[in-house]
Amino acid sequence: MRAWVVRAGENGEREPTALEEGVLLVGWHGLGDLTEVRTREDIKAAVAAAYPDEGPYTVGNWTGQLYRFVHDIQAGDYVVLPLRSGRVAVGRVSGGYEYHADAPDSSRHARRVEWLVKDVDRQSIQPDLQNSMGSLLTVFELSRFASAERVAALAEGKPDPGRPDADEFAAGLTEPTKLYEEVRRRAADEPLTLSVRDFLAIWGIQRRYPAAVEQIKNDLDERGLVTVPPFTEGSIESRIAVVAGGSEPDEAGTSAMTRLTSGGLVDRMFVSHLIVGGTQDGPGEESETETVAYRVSNLESANRMPEFVRVGADLKTAMTLMVLRGYSQLPVLDADGRLRGVVSWESIGRAHMADPRAGLEAATVRGQEADRSDDLLNWIGAVQQSGYVLVRDHDHKVCGMVTASDLTVQFGTRVRPFVLVEEIEQRLRRVVDRCVPLERIRAVVPGRRASRVNSAANLTFGAYGHLLKVPENWAALGWAIDQEHFLTALEECRQFRNGLMHFSPDPVTDDQLLPAQGLLELLRSMDPQN
Question: Which of 37, 153, 177, 209 might form a disulfide with 158, Cβ 3.0–4.6 angstroms?
């Protein structure tokens, strides 16, 4: 079972027919019957022939959407239809692709659907699923965070149950006051634990950038709370405990932090690090442990235990694991989980050259080991040179491994949003310079700065919204799209861009990218030759 979104036109123009007749409808009226078109390449050829003036990107994009509509969507799948009212309809697909030759041009490509509910309030849908529905594509799948099961719940008239990996209890902590009350209610031997993601959500924040971290730290200081380990360390999915670090000692004269340490409920080394090296005399004092930085622990792989072999294992065991998993090396750990070396194909080869009967001990060489709280940038050169570095926790036990591949994925993920926003700005500059006279561009720039504006390149991102609100300027673009929706998307992209400019160790997720991606898709469609 899968879940899809199929829109009813750019401005919902097909919505009445879709709801009244129980059908999913897509446009592309230049295309004929696709019933016998079986492959993606055949659909691509049909799209290219029907729209000869469109570039390769648009043809490929449209091909993907049409292939999903004709072939990927199956009877029994759930489908969501966003409505002009702001609500959504949810149905179950009941038939295959149909071509209605006698229907209006924009309603010939159809699928039968049984509408189960037609007025789902968006307030009953969790933000992550709402964001997933926000793409401007006509046909796309809802594939993340168990979306199909959640849409099925909506179809039964139930509220969205949320991500299955989300902390149900944490979801109820909707503001700092509730967090404080919950920590105060709990006994010292049952600290409140939750993921960094859920912790940030209490403040309505998704990524750890300096201003947000400062706000949270101030709130925690005012309430005498502390997170263990610091919420600025680890990945967004790492778990932390929230404790009353500033509470007075109990009857035995013991602080909450000491009770946590002695009870083994949280990482002992983290607690001692906070007590000895990160004490805070009062609100506003800087704590070294809570500095926003790019730590080794910010990489997911640094928090994921790698495959390993124990000291004394057979070398054949290591070789078998390396072949099965496609690894170049394996850590060798002692009984306590501490690193005793690394075995690699190179070390195995060298050991066998000296002695064909060499075992694991002879093939084990010294391995590189970073602390999870180390600055990641200090280890990039070492990872580049050797291909990996093992990661240890504060008890000096191996807890992860960072490879060159991990760094490539991480920094590729971080660069992608900047490239996306840059293309949006470039396209805005180009179309404004081409269509709007310079004097009207200068009109949106206040004061003396207007005289220094020589083109749209001198405008801030936010200024484009003010410029294109003016009816005369909007009309000059000649775009057959809804102005209000475009300006809303532009404002969402401006806010996304502003957040992007603040450093955060947390990568931008695909869901967070959706609004900007949708705007870029729209700009490419409006100006396909650039």
Answer: 153
- Residue positions counted in the chain: 530
Dihedral of the alpha carbons of 196, 197, 200, 206, in degrees to the nearest 10: 140
Residue 57, number of CB atoms within 10 A of its CB = 12
Q: How far apart are the first and last CA of the chain?
A: 39
* Residue written as token pair 């509220």: 159
Predicted confidence (pLDDT) per residue in 381-398, tens digit: 888 888 899 999 878 899
Q: What is the architecture of the domain spanning 300-396?
A: Roll (3.10)
Beta-carbon neighbour count of residue 250 at 10 Å? 12
Contact 159, 165 (CB under 8 A): no
Contacts of 67 (CB under 8 A, 6+ apart): 40, 43
Would you identify the CATH topology of the domain 3-155? ph1033 like fold (3.10.590)
> What number of other Cβ atoms are within 10 A of residue 338's Cβ?
14
User: Cis before residue 417, ω within 30 degrees of 0?
Assistant: no
- Amino acid identity of residue 205, one-letter, is I
456, 438 Cβ separation under 8 angstroms: no
* Tokens of residue 104, six digits: 């209006």
pTM of the model: 0.48
Contacts by residues 487-496 (CB-CB < 8 Å, ≥ 24 positions apart): 489/136, 489/515, 489/518, 489/519, 489/522, 490/464, 490/465, 490/519, 491/465, 492/516, 492/519, 493/421, 493/424, 493/461, 493/519, 494/461, 494/462, 494/465, 496/417, 496/421
Would the CATH topology of 3-155 be identical to that of 300-396?
A: no
Could you state, in order of their start, the residue ranges of all structural domains in the chain?
Answer: 3-155, 168-292, 300-396, 412-526
Q: Is the pLDDT of residue 255 over 60?
A: no
Amino acid occupying residue 282:
G
Helix, strand or coil, per DSSP, at residue 527: coil
Q: What are 33-85's pLDDT values in tens digits?
A: 999 888 989 999 998 898 888 887 678 888 888 999 999 999 999 999 999 88
Helix (H, G, I), strand (E, B) or coil at 121: coil
Q: How many other C-beta atoms lie within 10 A of the C-beta of residue 176? A: 17
